[in-house]
Design goal:
The protein is α/β, with parallel strands linked by helices. The protein has a single domain, classed as Divalent-metal-dependent TIM barrel enzymes (TIM Barrel). Helix content is about 35%, strand content about 15%. The protein is built from 8 helices and 10 strands. Helix 3 packs parallel to helix 4, helix 4 crosses helix 5 and helix 5 runs parallel beside helix 6. The longest helix has 21 residues. The radius of gyration is 18 Å and the shape is globular.
Amino acid sequence: MAHSAVVSLGLLSRPGPIFAGRQIRSTPSFELSLAPWSLMRRPFGQADPQGIDLFDYPMIAKELAFDFIEQDNLHFPGDLPVDRDIVKMKDRCEAAGIRNSLLLCGALGDVADVDKKKRKRAIRKYIRWIAAAEHLGCESVRVVCADRVSVSNEEKLKFAVEGVSKLVRYAARKDINLLIENHNGYSSDPDWLVRLIREVDHPRCGILADFTEWRMRRDPVVLYPDPYQGIEILAPYTRSVGAKSTHFDQSGNETNVDYFRMMEIILGAGFKGKVAVEYFGEDLPRKEGIRLTKDLLERVREQLS
């Protein structure tokens, strides 16, 4: 796998100026959304002592001044959508005056699994959630693909192209984009992920670029060595962005990721999608972490305009 090296998360905070020579359009047009894990950190409908009820999520997001939210299948009970829950969530969103931008899907199996039966089973589950995303009014669905290293990258790519191609054709019929995230394993190798998007070669297939998900292997952990270079590789194919945050300094800057540098790279590639606030920290109240992340992204947007 290209460029692999054992590094620490500290390399995400790399000093240095923003790329002053890069051309940024006069009005960066990205909009903000809220990722559900910022508020709810227990899966499968489990009660979160520090979080909120799933169906209160849209109203809380609106109170935090968001117009768009993401959903995650893991916050609903079971690994297949239940119609009454999807209808209820849609009704709550409409009551709050908030729109769903993206449905994050995971823990449904690997659409690039080397086992044909497992691959087909995963695809069937994803199809059910794509139908749920259509009912919720989502623009896109995020798929986890090839997040574990088991076979050669070339062999994994073959199965990934097969699985993703089937899903994106179905999603396109629903007027939904299918996004693959750099989300561990081969998908965290940006060169591999871009090859996947190119070989699928479908206008509805793109990337959800995450600032921090660069774990290419486990035991020992191997991270892609330069996340800014990784984002630069992914940027031309990026339709949505996950802006993870955990810690802030006294100036309100995230201490692990240079948000200005990341977004300058992404905007420089012509990005026009949504950027999701994903506060994953533990040392601040969740709503405060969300507010700081949102404020930072708004400062980035203003400075790069």
